[in-house]
Amino acid sequence: MTWRNWVLAVFGAWFVVSAWLLGVAHIQAYLWSAIILGGLTLLGSLSPLVLHGRQGGPKWLAYVVSLFGLYLGLNPWFYGFSSNAGALWVTMLVGAAILAAGLIEALNSKGSPSSSPERSLKHSA
Predict the structure, then answer these.
(1) N or C, which terminus of the chain has less Cβ within 10 Å?
(2) What global pTM score does this model have?
């Protein structure tokens, strides 16, 4: 678990409540994207702490969180709320930040011992 996981957790948690804080909860597409993708980002960023202790989680999980950020950044066009400037910019900026932080976490993490197939083969021999 690194500081990058905590940054991702903050982005995820903030995005879950952003529809109400920004006053755009009436935009159903934004509301549900925020709840679902923010919650998945929050869970994905904190799961290394829960599942793997202080060793860190598997790299693939950080890549999955990065994909959440990419999808989040493209949401305004997928779901048609790009005309709302506030929702558009918040979604794009938070999505880009989650994408960047997730990629940095994936590229800088060593991963857990169980996440490497080569290590598993070495230990079983």
Answers:
(1) C
(2) 0.72
